[in-house]
Structures are given as structure tokens and as C-alpha cells.
């Protein structure tokens, strides 16, 4: 017994919300609002019976005329740009913008992280080239392993070639 009564009350409460709302000016210029249109004169429909929401601003309400539907662009506005400047954004639009901002932020963070990693790697390579140059210029004996696995000490001409190569590496890596 209680359920049918609650259903009836809910239906009766929702019935006026589905009504159309009209706006018009009388002969004295006064503005009137009603759910019943006047018998004569120019009428503006503020909310259609099928519409679920009323216009959010008075400008939007004044812009709708009898027979117009929500979402239609005025004749002087290019397609795809209607309502983008003053209309409130829908939840889907806000969600899309949020996701785009989050994606852009993640890309920026990834790019910054990559740049930091590249800078750290360049710093390590620079330090390694400088230490190699310092070891070559120190004058101590340096040995290299040959292809057969034997140790071969650098002579003066080989040392100078290695020093020149190390200097070019330092110049390239330590800018």
C-alpha cells in the first residue's frame, strides 16, 4: 500500500517539471513567465517539455525562440563553435579536458625525466673521459690488452695518440 502511494507522489511531483515554460511581453512592455502561452503575440519558449534542464543563463533563455531546440547553432555562428564560449561545460567535456591535461602533464614529466637521465649519463661520460685523460697525462705506465690477451705497454707515440683522442672526447662530452 505504501509503495503505490510513494509512486503516485513521485509522479505528481515530477509532472510540473516536465511542463513548458513561456516568456512574453504584454502591451505595456512587462515581461511575463508562465507554463501556459498567451492567446496572441510573440512567445519565447524557455524550456521545452522534452528538455531535462532549463537554460542556465538569462541570455541563453532569451536566445531560445518558440520551436527551437537546445543544441542548435544560430544562423550566424559557424558549425562546431556554437556555445563554446559562454555555455557551461558538461561533465563529459570537463572529464575530457582533465584527461588531456593529465596526459600532457605525464608526457611533460616523462620528457623531463628523460632529459635528467640523459644529463646524468653525459656527466658520467664526461667524468670518465676526464679521468682517462688525467691517467694518460700522469706519466705512469699504461698497458692495454692485445687481441691475443697479452699485455702491451703504450709507447710515447701511442700515448700521445691516446691523449689526443681523450682530449677530443672531453671537449665533446664536457660542454
TrEMBL record:
It holds the Pfam family DUF4124. It comes from the Bacteria. Residues 9-61 form the DUF4124 domain. Residues 33-122 are annotated as: Disordered. Residues 51-65 have a biased composition (Low complexity). Residues 91-100, 108-122 have a biased composition (Basic and acidic residues). The keyword Isomerase does not apply. InterPro entries: DUF4124. Keywords: Signal. Residues 1-19 form the signal peptide. This is Uncharacterized protein DUF4124. It comes from Azoarcus indigens.
